[in-house]
Each structure stands twice: as structure tokens, then as C-alpha cells.
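REQUEST FORM: STRUCTURE PREDICTION
Request ID: SP-0412
Submitted by: Lab K.M.
Chain count: 1
Length (residues): 305
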Amino acid sequence: MEKQKTYYSPENFSGNFKNGIFTSQIFDSGKAETKWDRLKLEIPRQNKIEVCVYIFEDTQNIPKNPSIVSRFTDILLYNGGINGRYLCFEVKLLENEANFTAYELSFPKQSFVEYLPEIYHGNEQLERFLAVYQNQYLDAEDEIMNFHNRLNLQKTDAPEKFAPVICGEIFLGLPENRLRKLLGVSSLLYRIKGTKNCIKLLIYALTGKFPIIIDCADDLSESEKRLFVTEDGHFYLLLKSRPDIDLDLFHYLIKQFIPITSFYTTIFLDENKCMGNYCFIGKNHISDKKHLVVNASVLGGDLRL
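STATUS: Completed
RESULT:
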């Protein structure tokens, strides 16, 4: 299934109505015959509006008549049965004032029907029925995942009281400034758990610096694989300096977000110890283990990190 993408309104967006009409930019899906999914407008329900959506294949031939006309702020774009690479929309005021603060445009169309046995595929009536509950479910999930955005975590007193609710109790014991940072990204960490980006984001929140991750299965060249003794699931975690938090807690948190079959070696690169402005593995690095396992037969190599 193709991954769904979303266009969001710009930060601090304020819909400007010219002569009572707001006209969006032209959005490009990058693919012909795109089935657009959903358009959500942040406009109070008491405001009476008319939304005109134009879907087309050629920017030089924009249709005069809209593909979809609606008076709702949440529109399923595939109901019109019209596909196309490009989309733009207009919002017409039917009253004197309207507070238009944001919009979300999602594509391509996705349906929970695709997760059902193949016998149910292509059933448009079932797709429309499930779409109602699908949107409610996705909206509720989005509200839960972004709940921390409603909190002012930089000013909230006693952030440790929120930690068990937002991300469980694994972050308790951290200094308050680190805890505030982690609460702000905790939902994203759990969403991308087990990935390199998750570990990078976690360590950045803990230390203020991004690490270098060397995955022995993918990132090493043949010459480097001869230097490092590689094992399935093993990766190297290179940090510029030791974190200013308890190392046992630091490693405990990392282990909560890596696959259960993975393990790693942490190497702290000491910037104060230089050999030709390079930090050499096995020479002037500091490891969290007594011995870094390397292939002794090629220690004369010139690996620089």
C-alpha cells in the first residue's frame, strides 16, 4: 500500500478571503490519476461556507466547473469519482465573517477495506460505510498522539506528573530539563520505535547532540567489515562525549526503543584527544566496554570516523 501524505497549512496560517473567497495554491501529488483522500478545514461549524474542489491533470487546462462542491468542513475527495495529479480548492463565505485557521489535504485514498480479505475489495458501498468510522478513528488517534502539543511543557510545573500519562514511567529519574524535551517528542518516539531515526531523536533529546549510528549489517564497506567483527543485529553508537546523565539510565532508555534482537557498542569520541585531528577506533576513543571487539589481523588499517 502506498504511504499516505498530507499537505498542512503553513504555520501561523490565516485564511485571507478576497471578496469573500479564499483560493488555495495548486497542490501536486506527483502522480497521474491520483485518488485524493480527504480535505479538512479548521472553520467553526456555525460559519456557513461553500467549498469548491478542482481536480485535474494539466495545470494549463484547469476546469471551470468544480469536481466537488460541499458545504462541510470535512470532505471525502474520492466520493466524486474524479482522479487527477493536481488539486486546488476555494472556500466561499456565505456570511460576513469566518475564522479559517488551518487545513489538511491527504492523498492518496486509503481504505480499511484494503486490510480485509480480497473478497471485500472493490466494494464501494462498504468503503463508504467504513470511511465514516475510519476518519473518526484516525482523528481520535491523531488527537491522542499529539496530546502533548496542548501542554506548555516548558512552563508546566512538575512535568514528572505528566510523564506516566504521556509516555509511561520509563523517563522518570531524568533531570527536569531532559524530561521536558522527551515529553515533547515521546509520541513520535513510540511511533517510529525500533528505527535509526528513533534512536537519533532519543539521544538528541537526552544529550543535545545527534549520534552517529553504524549498522554493521548495511553501512559497512567490505574493508570495514573485515575490521569490525560483525554479528546480526549489532550496531555501533558513536557519541562525541559522555552524556551528563546516569549511564545506566541512558542505556536503559536506549534498550527500550531498539528491537529486542539488537545490541550495540557505544563509543565516546573524545575531542580533547587528537591524532592528526582524527579519532581512531581502538586508539584514542573511549568505549563503554572494556574492549572493543575488532579483527586484530587488520588493525594496521586506516579507518577514520
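NOTES: Residues 87 and 276 are 56 Å apart (CA to CA).
Reviewed by: T.R.
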